[in-house]
Amino acid sequence: MSTTLEETPLEKKAPLLGLSKPWRMALYAFAGLVVLSLIRVITGANDLTSAGTVNAAVMLAVPIGLAGLGGLWSERAGVVNIGLEGMMILGSFGAGWIGWQHGAWAGVLMAIAFGVIGGLVHAVATVTFGVDHVVSGVAINILGLGATQYLAGELLADSPGGGETQSPPNSGLPKPSIPGLSGLLEPLESKHWFLLSDIAGILRGLFTNVSLLTIVAILLVVLTYVLLWQTPFGLRLRSVGEDPHAAESLGVKVRLYKYYAVAVSGGLAGLAGGFLAIVASNLYREGQTGGRGYIGLAAMIFGNWRPGGLMMGAGLFGYTDAMQLRNAVAVHALLLVVFALLLGLTVLNLYRRRWISAGVGLVFAVLSLIWYLNTDELPGPITTMTPYVTTLLVLSLAAQSLRMPKASGQVYRPEGK
Amino acid sequence: MNKLNADTARRIGLSVAAPVLAVALSVVITSIVLASAGNDPVETFTQMIEYAQEPRTTTLIINAAVTYYFAALAVAFGFRMNLFNIGVDGQYRLAALLAAAVGGAVELPKVLHVGLILLVAVIVGGLWAAVAGLLKVYRGISEVITTIMLNSITTALIAYLLTADKLAVQVEGSNNIGTPEIPASGRVGGIDLVPDSKLQVYGLIVLAAIVGFLYWFVIERSRFGFDLRATGRNEEAAVASGVNVKRMVLISMAISGGIAGLVGMPQLLGASYTYSLDFPAGIGFTGIAIALLGRNTAIGVAIGALLFGFLDTSSQILDLEGVPKEIVLITQGVIVLSVVIAYELVRRYRIVAQQREVGRQLSSAAGSEDSKPQGAQA
């Protein structure tokens, strides 16, 4: 193979303390935990790391993560998928419609199937007809919304307990916990000790009442990584997203791979919608997706078009969202977290001699500290901004090192056509 | 000479063919969807068309189209430079809120008052969009993501600002809440455009026409527009010819947002005079679809706006007839998709025709020499 598809780092950095990447990530994560815990102890906002928050965060992160994973598949094969939102809507309707009649698992399958249909429409438009990807995506968002609202009027209006805008409830899926864990960790968490209670809270949140579909979602992230980065199939698929003409010259069936990728993308987005209708709630409701398809796309970009980064992005969204839903005091404490984060980055920037970035970071750090000190609580509507502001903030600090698949968004036309 | 005319005729025919093909296709698909649920497609469309001809409905269609036109032009301006401004929705809502607040707070002579409100709207929309522009230029974040985030932030910001102790007051006789009403000097009266209609067409239709003309002029006839289109088509070539792309991105984003600021104005100055909780939302997204349908040209977008205005307004009759009115969303989605597919098909047909033509000319010119058509890739 003459084309290497390894990610090339944009700038060579001296590895921190000479550690390899996994260890470095673990170190960052641990440092973050210490900071979070410290701030919890200072502010007394125990919801920062409570089991309830973590559990809610996972619940909110999964649909975003699945949608983002859908975006990742599609973009890795060079097709931008703005239509994730529409495919999610289709999925949530499929799950709601079939879920109450034939059980939750049938609903899950239907959600995936509906999503795949949306994906295939996108594939026909973008791959076969060479339509601009964004155009097709926008059309699919309109179509998904229209089709479900129309179908709901025809199929759900007369159902028992349902109506034109919602389906009857379904039975849901089991939510197993690791036996004994909760009893073991809860006393520790309620002591509110530094670090130990935080770890207990997070573990308890992660391992109790975990929906089976959440486990499926996490397996799908792992599976995506293995398939796309560890197999010949994945190499070909990504080569299509980097340089389709080179891939073609090596005998890769470019269009076929794009079809695979976009269909899988639709299926994942559909599953994300299904999660909303089966796990996050127990029915399909109009407007249920609430723009999560777009947020998923943001999470994917945040994650640099990689499964691991995507999970972090989705987790960040889920976490700030959960915080915002549960406790205004905790969101207020987040200001202090932002301050700590920015301060850390400023120090890092100073160390790397990036003066301007350091200056901007410092100004914002001081601003958030002043804001924190002068208020007791954030007004409700302001707290709902948290996830979006956080995303903007994190992206503006990290966007330079992102690299999207090279041919993403470009219309591919085979040689000679 | 004759051949030239035939060529022109065919070219015009081809460019009309695509949209016509698209609308026809979407009617067919909508009909299939309708029929498969046991509704009579012919009757459904007949009802919509008949309803649209009532003077009241016609007025409503034109009014909807005026609003859509601003939204679509805002999106189209960005598209011309390969900027995807999904944030029109947030930009016009924030602009309308602040413009309404300013308009309701001051008392000025007529022209000045209206001018001030419009100016505030344009500036707010422009600045809000410029945030995305700045983040793109200086931090390299895709405007697609930032404008999506800004939309959500706008929603929260409006919820924060539109409270009784900030910008809003209780609307009389309801539990709605809105900005203080704009006094008569800040309102724009309607025009009796449709005969026999009790309703009037928004006076700001004139502004829509002016903005449409300016859009055409700036994009097609000015140096700035040339740079803009060049940057949109081939950034590297534009840079090589001395275009400052960063500046272009910032300015175009701000202009797009400025036009977006006008979206709420016909409604605000011509009908509601206040920004309240039920101020229409989501028009920005309709604007995206219309801009795509109209191929980002001033005329095309106008036709698209009228078409969407027709579909949205006259579908209201369907609910009375037992057909879910959301069927028109399917029609709209299919139109957007099929219009671009149709353009693609026409493009391919053109290339093949061109190649055949070149081939024929070459073979007749070079006699027996076997030459392949080249350079027909578009």
Automatic annotation (TrEMBL), chain A:
Membrane-topology annotation of the record: Multi-pass membrane protein
Entry GO terms, CC: plasma membrane
Any GO MF annotation of the entry: transmembrane transporter activity
Record-linked CDD domains: TM_PBP1_transp_TpRbsC_like
Keyword Aminoacyl-tRNA synthetase among UniProt keywords: no
InterPro entries referenced in this protein's UniProt entry, alphabetically: ABC_transp_permease (IPR001851)
Assigned keywords, A-Z: Cell membrane, Membrane, Transmembrane, Transmembrane helix
Transmembrane segments: 25-42, 54-73, 79-98, 105-127, 133-152, 206-228, 259-281, 293-317, 329-348, 355-373, 385-402
Pfam families: BPD_transp_2 (PF02653)
Domain of life: Bacteria
Subcellular location(s) per record: Cell membrane
Protein name listed in UniProt: ABC transporter permease
Organism: Kineosporia babensis
UniProtKB/TrEMBL annotation, chain B:
Transmembrane segments: 12-37, 57-79, 91-108, 114-135, 144-162, 199-219, 249-269, 275-293, 298-315, 327-346
Localisation per UniProt entry: Cell membrane
Record has Cell membrane as a keyword: yes
GO molecular function: transmembrane transporter activity
Membrane topology: Multi-pass membrane protein
Principal subcellular localisation of the protein: membrane
The entry's keywords: Cell membrane, Membrane, Transmembrane, Transmembrane helix
Name of a matching Pfam family: BPD_transp_2
GO cellular component labels: plasma membrane
PANTHER family: ABC TRANSPORTER, PERMEASE PROTEIN, GUANOSINE ABC TRANSPORTER PERMEASE PROTEIN NUPP
Name of the protein in question: ABC transporter permease
Species in which this protein is naturally found: Kineosporia babensis
Lineage per the UniProt record: Bacteria, Bacillati, Actinomycetota, Actinomycetes, Kineosporiales
